[in-house]
Amino acid sequence: xxxxRDNPTNLTESKPLARIGILVVSDRASxxxxxxxxxxxxxxxxxxxxRSNWIVIFKIIPDGAESVANALxxxxxxxxxxxxxxxxxxxxxxxxxxxxxxxxxxGRELVGFGELxxxxxxxxxxxxxxSRQIAGTRNHSLIVNLPGRPAAIDVxxxxxxxxxxxxxxxxxxxxxxxxxxxxIAFRPGA
Length: 190
Description:
The structure is a single chain. Helices cover 35% and strands 17% of the residues. The protein is built from seven helices and six strands. Strands 2-1-3-6-5-4 form a six-stranded mixed beta sheet, with helices on both faces. Strand 5 (135-138) and strand 6 form a beta hairpin. The longest helix is centred in the middle third of the chain and has 14 residues, at 65-78. The model is unreliable at 6-13 (pLDDT under 50).
């Protein structure tokens, strides 16, 4: 799987290389019992929407609040990710503790991300009301919990991604530029 885009011929080569973490939270995938499709769906979406150069740091971990918190600290603090997208562990099952692990490490919660993801997902499935995705910031990183189904990931990312470049700018993260044929990034006053 090709992760990220580091293309020296890209017109944005003089800009800093954005770092994006993809964190798959799944007991079965972390044990090799299940072929991860959700992380691949996130990477595929990013490949279509991001025009500037970027690199992905990809991790698969078991479910659990502590494992999520530790992985988010590693991706944000040690790997220097500007954006961390998690997938899995956002439902009501006992092992679904991604939001709890995320809350352990974020400084500020951005509730609008979760609200919008649930709203747009309800157009497709009535079980979207069971979803507990959240988002927040940790220093210069934006962390967003996504659902585990690839189709739901696409729906959610299409809804929230127009706000992500401006959010990254506001928190002092490295910038990303989007492909305007796929996504129109919103910036107030622009």
